[in-house]
Protein: Pyridoxal 5'-phosphate synthase
Organism: Sanguibacter inulinus
Amino acid sequence: MTAHPTASPVAPGAVRRRLRGLPSFGAELPTFDVAAAPAVPEALFLEWLEHAVDAGVLAPHAVTVSTAAASGEVSARVVILKDVSDEGWVFAGQATSPKGRDLDENPRAALTFFWPAVGRQVRVVGDVVRRPADEAAADFLARPPAARAAYLAGEQSAPMAPSDDLSEALAAAEVEAAAHPDDASPGWTLWSVRPVSVEFWQADHSRAHVRLRYRPSDVAGEWSTDRLWP
Ligand SMILES: Cc1cc2nc3c(=O)[nH]c(=O)nc-3n(C[C@H](O)[C@H](O)[C@H](O)COP(=O)(O)O)c2cc1C
């Protein structure tokens, strides 16, 4: 572990004023007609995702995944969304990473998408299941060699030793990945979040933010919706 000196203090109130002055959303915001919302949340999510892509939102497929260990300790990180279907919202990572360990202990997660330019947030909460190993292997093999190399170079989230050289490790792993293009990695894992709640949030400049939450209804496969106070 490396120790660092304490950062110098800034003028009292300066950070608060700076933060208060920052914009959160684009100047022009879309509207959200909840009466026209599809019957299933996946359909609305895909509609909103395409809209975000068309609006030029950077990395609209990046999502914050929040997990909790059995101890109750929580953590969150950004990952890339891999798929959305009846199976849920799918993301990938290393089985032995902190998120993988959390999900082994407590297979529940919250996903949070935020698309500032269009003032939209989508929150998905649900049970997490691992996708079949052959699906994870196919996903791993479809990744570019540099991405596979980055994964193979070292154990994700483990501290690096001072003697570890990242560039060297990446170069060696890239040679290895290129030499074995058909070798899947057993640790590469796809997780699917099967939603028990999906909430769509549309910002409004006059603060009349529109929120619509889907939850499974009593009829299997169907959803009921609620408007929520902003
Ligand atoms: C835009 C972006 C995309 C990322 N995509 C992934 C991903 O798909 N899978 C992954 O394991 N980590 C991804 N990461 C890195 C994670 O945020 C995180 O550092 C890593 O998964 C380790 O998290 P953990 O220690 O909580 O397991 C991404 C980071 C960013 C900023």
Strands lie at 62-68, 74-85, 88-94, 108-115, 120-130, 188-202, 210-216, 223-228. The longest strand covers residues 188-202.
